[in-house]
Amino acid sequence: MGNKSSLMLQEQDIRDIQAETGFLPSQIERLYSRFTSLDKGDSGTLSREDFLRIPELAINPLGDRIVHAFFKESEDDHVNFRQFVRVLAHFRPIKKAQDNKLNAREEKLRFAFKMYDLDDDERISREELLAVLHMMVGENISDDQLNSIAERTILEADRDGDQMISFEEFCSALERTDVEQKMSIKFLK
Amino acid sequence: MPHYLQSRRSASSHLLTAGVTHYSTHSFASEACSRSLAGPTYRRHPLQNDVRMELSLLNMLWSPVEEAAAFLNSLEVWEAVRPFVLWGQLMVFVCFLLVATIGRRLKLRRKYVELLDGVFNFAAFKLADDTDEEEEEDEAATSSDEEVVICPESPRAVPASHEGSFRFEDPLPYLAAGMRAVVSDCVTKSFTSAELRTWNMLSRTKRQRYLRKSPSLTVFWAVGFVLRWVFLMPVRVLLLVISLTTLIVLCAAVGLLPSSAFKRRLNKRVVMWCFDFVAGSLSIVARFHNPENRPTHGIAVANHTSPIDSMVLATDQCFDMVGQKTRGLLGLFMGALSRSSYHIWFERSESKERSKVIQVIQEHAQDPEKPPILIFPEGICLNNTAVVQFKKGAFEVDSDIYPIAIRFDLRYGDPYWYQNTFTGYVFSMMTSWAIVCDVWYLPPTRRGPNESAAAFASRVKSQIAHRGGFVQLAWDGFVKFGQQSEAWQRKRGEWRQRQQDAFARRLSSNEAEERKRE
């Protein structure tokens, strides 16, 4: 039998995670099954290579940023199951009847904001926006064109004229977007 | 991980199994095919497990059982029960022997399968109450699947917002698609044991909590456990040994005859009967559809699920196999088969082998006297829910191609090798209820005058996928081995480029609109 004591998820852990994220126990078990199947080294944690082993993620233009989002909270470059679920909880669909903590609209927007804001200074600078644009289009558009696109985007959203986008400006730029629908994925039971 | 491969090779050569010759295609993505010999490189996890899971479950129930056993022993009941168990085993053995040798005609296997069907329906009924309530609510709230498609072939980017230029919300669908891939992606799903909709009484396929839920189900499971491990498994092992020995001996005997039409006919009958015998020992119940399309010459291609695929097909038609040469007992077995017919064995590491093998295949396929060749163009095993891209090597040959679709009914037993070791795999198969499959013979096709080999391969792949009800994946087989394969590193950049191209196209069409307006 394996030497991992964490092979089986304890009832208490499931309850804690349910309280924190709002996932159902069956969903948590399923995510745990997924977690262990990604964990090739049987270490109880995931490394960046484990994530990038998923083919669809590896060829996603934003793949590296997505992986980075999981590792933001961890200190030692490894993601344990709680951190894994906590990040995924942001993408839970919003249910009217329930108390939504991590997947409320503001939390989702904050997650999207953090994807742009790499240096964590609560502002999206033009360079950060350019970096994301570059990831999305690759070599297809020249740098000058990209520059002008980025400038135009910032100009439209910038309220206080500091050439950077704060979280409030970000939220108002996305006011009319259906963030709840765009940033939700289906979790099977 | 060469040492890992070595241990697999020695393990497989120590165990006699027919059809474990891993008939990869002759067009060799070097590591990918040889790794299919070695099986998967990932571990078990608590919800789908190999035989050790069942034993651990047994541990849970063991203490009351132990007390009961001690009690019974003191009553000397075991002494009384033992002859019954032994008689039971003997009866099962005789039954199986009959079924394996002549059972096809008596349709005994099918009756067994129908009996199991009834039990599974009962289990499904018992478990059905709690699972279906909240599923409808989720449908509305999640992002629609018509948006971003992240795929090696024909990726699709989200239509950018109408006002033109880049908006902050444009990358969001890619973010969601990435998260969706983290939770569940089609590729990894196809390389793990498939999930069943109902419970089939094997603890390896259902979560532990369900076992404690309904007492009648626990009883069923316990009875099933005893049946499978005490009666079915030892009998099957014994029968397997007998059948394999018979196969080797008879093939060698036929091989002694001089080459003639009589020898070919005899070889055909002998090999088919022997493989049927072996298949009976594993309780393989196969149903063949459209026998009028059964291959008689040329090349047959099929989707690959497990090492026993070729054995299943060999019970209905005698094929010549294409495979990698191996040493040990497996090599002995392959040698024995070779003596009676013209199988094609090659050595993958030799560089000139590919063109040589294609030549041999071409000659073999065009000779109307020889039996058809069986090739698995995917190059790796999948879990029988999807097909990956077919390698074009087999489709370059100028001859009739007979597509075959093999679909296993996974409720009775899963032949996909997801266990860590070969013995684990064999035991898992031996302790399943049965291996049930449907085989469809599709009408033969040929490459069109202007059709490239790759296009032809795609065409045949979609035919097989339609018939068998498989998902078609645009991915190449070597993604199973992730970053370890150089082919993946090369292709990954290329595929990512395509996604970027798709997005850039959307963006620049918006830009053109914007500029027109200004």
UniProtKB/TrEMBL annotation, chain A:
It is found in: Cell membrane; Cytoplasm; Nucleus. InterPro entries: Calcineurin_B_homologous (IPR051875), EF-hand-dom_pair (IPR011992), EF_Hand_1_Ca_BS (IPR018247), EF_hand_dom (IPR002048). Belongs to the calcineurin regulatory subunit family. CHP subfamily. Gene3D superfamilies: EF-hand (1.10.238.10). It comes from Scylla paramamosain. It holds the Pfam family EF-hand_7. PANTHER family: EG:114D9.1 PROTEIN-RELATED. GO terms for biological process: protein transport. GO terms for cellular component: cytoplasm; nucleus; plasma membrane. The keyword Phosphoprotein applies. Keywords: Calcium, Cell membrane, Cytoplasm, Lipoprotein, Membrane, Metal-binding, Myristate, Nucleus, Phosphoprotein, Protein transport, Repeat, Transport. This is EF-hand domain-containing protein. GO terms for molecular function: calcium ion binding. Residues 26-61, 104-139, 145-180 form the EF-hand domain.
TrEMBL record, chain B:
The chain crosses the membrane at residues 84-102, 214-231, 237-258. It holds the Pfam family Acyltransferase. One of its GO terms (molecular function) is glycerol-3-phosphate O-acyltransferase activity. One of its GO terms (cellular component) is membrane. Pathway: Phospholipid metabolism; Lipid metabolism. One of its GO terms (biological process) is triglyceride biosynthetic process. It is found in: Membrane. Keywords: Acyltransferase, Lipid biosynthesis, Lipid metabolism, Membrane, Phospholipid biosynthesis, Phospholipid metabolism, Transferase, Transmembrane, Transmembrane helix. Signal peptide: none annotated. Its main location: membrane. The keyword Transmembrane helix applies. InterPro entries: LPCAT1-like, Plipid/glycerol_acylTrfase. Residues 298-409 form the Phospholipid/glycerol acyltransferase domain. Belongs to the 1-acyl-sn-glycerol-3-phosphate acyltransferase family. This is Phospholipid/glycerol acyltransferase domain-containing protein. The lineage of its organism: Eukaryota, Metazoa, Ecdysozoa, Arthropoda, Crustacea.
